[in-house]
Amino acid sequence: MMTRGRLVSLSGAVLGLGILVGMQIRPTGGGDSYIQQIQKFNEVLSLTSQRYVEKVETSKLVTAAIEGLLDELDPHSVYFSADERSGEAERFRGAFEGIGIGYEVVKDTIQVVQVIPGGPSSAIGLQTGDRIVSIDDSSAIGIKRDAVPGKLKGPKGTKVRITVVRPSDRNRPLDFTIVRDKIPLYSVDTGFMLDDVTGYVKINRFSATTTSELQKKLTDLKAAGMQRLVLDLRGNPGGYLDQAFTVSDEFLDAGKKIVFTRGRPGAMNDDKDLLSTAGGLWEKQPLVVLIDRNSASASEIVAGAMQDQDRALIVGETSFGKGLVQNEFPLSDGSAIRLTVARYYTPSGRLIQRPYEDGRDKYYQQVLSRTETIPERIASAEEVVKHASAQADTTVEEFHTKAGRAVYGGGGITPDFFIKRDTLGIYAVKVFSKGYLLDWSRSWLERNDRTVRAKYGSDIKRFEREFNFSAADLQAFVAYAAEQGVPADPTSFARDEKRIATNLKALVARAVWGEDGLYQTIEPTDDVVVAALTLFPKAESLSRYGVLTPPRQRTRN
């Protein structure tokens, strides 16, 4: 059995320590003469460097050659320059050094959209909604987004001076001197109670701190009365394998297979079978896991383990289909390659990886263009597979869970229940895509910031329950969009009025309370979340009996 501290392999778009760091890499044989091919490449590089009509940068040629080599392998074997490697590593380490805010550049100004609790900006009183107009006595108006980190991030202990304009008092700029510090990067976006008994946790990636973040959320939600849980992995691109394992371990009792990997025989890659341990925080209670086409790698490991072990109901749409294990191998100049060394399989033996023989472009395009036609608003996997087979005259490979339920392979995790998402009308598509909701909500809050904060204080739940824009407010939004070039369309607006109003409300909540405000306002109305809640009787049966229908309710033929 693999314990939590011994995993070093990687999954998804993640940097980490290659398992062969410091070891000499030797050719493993094959049909080609390894030495002859190296000599051939050196000859071409030398001739190009010495004889090409223009002076060339050898480093660019070598980089291009490395990238071309990896392109011939699979979509997830990639090269990182030293700078790219440093940036990627920071995203998954769980911390960076800076002032502790999340921001957006809105029009030409940095707007604070999150003040990280416990960070230096929180300590000195910076608020969501503040707009940074000056940094170290230089104007920040018109700054480009990619220039912001260089101004605000920096080593722990250094200082930065900023001037902000607060929506509630635009005529009195505020000056702050912030001492930079180590800032946590959270991979669990939010955790809160959807209702009196249902908890909700959203994980955005699997970083070094994901399991500890999840454990805190589960502990808090259990104390708040949680009896069942929605785990949202939609849009989660993956991360560290050890975190996929330990997150899964929180939901399984001891001795259950979570995932297994298989590499090329003789290529110095150990095959692994990862089994759960005792003591998880949510091993028996009802669980629904949400996935979509952008749930990849580590997300698919968790969803696949929960499904194959009959532990959770998987709801949404078929996941991405990324089931290749990468290890990172540092190179002498600080760059690195991330090389595929094995494949992931779910406990039932399903290969998570989709086919990629048609090249990288088609591989990624297939996910964007994939359509899954389901006969009803909510349909079981069996119904969808039968429907697809009838339409395309194809069959899908069938596997079986621990309890004997049918699950389906072919790349990615096929959910137990598909949900047909509500589509947007043409008017809503235009105003969403052009960013008019954010612009208008910011303008509205400038006029109403004090009133909102005075009435609701820190009570996000009360705001979510009680606040609604007036009909006059929504007509003002329509008028604003018309001024920006999207003509009023009463029929199309009426079709999506509730969704537009909810998103405007969520943007106000984020400006006042940060990301928690956004999620606690919008997720309870999300059509997939709402539909998933209706499926909890099946999730409860699965957690208790290992089947979707309780034995006493099952009919005999």
Polypeptide structure, described:
Helix content is 38%, strand content 21%. It contains 18 helices and 22 strands. The chain has a 7-stranded mixed beta sheet with strand order 10-11-12-15-16-22-19, sandwiched between helices. A hairpin with a 2-residue loop joins β3 (101-106) and β4 (109-115).
Any key phrases for this structure?
seven-stranded mixed β-sheet; 557 residues; alpha+beta; single chain; 21% strand
Which overall shape is indicated by the principal axes computed on the Cα atoms? globular
Number of helices: 18
- Adjacency order of strands in the biggest sheet: 10-11-12-15-16-22-19
Helix content: 25-40%
Secondary structure tally: strands: 22
Strand proportion: 15-25%
Structural class call reads alpha+beta
What does the largest sheet look like? 7 strands, mixed
How confident overall, as mean pLDDT?
87
Q: Report Rg.
A: 26 Å
Which residues sit in consecutive blocks of at least 5 with pLDDT less than 50?
Answer: 1-25
- First-residue to last-residue Cα separation: 42 Å
Specify the oligomeric state. Answer: single chain
TL;DR of this structure?
Helix content is 38%, strand content 21%. The protein is of the alpha+beta class and 557 residues long.
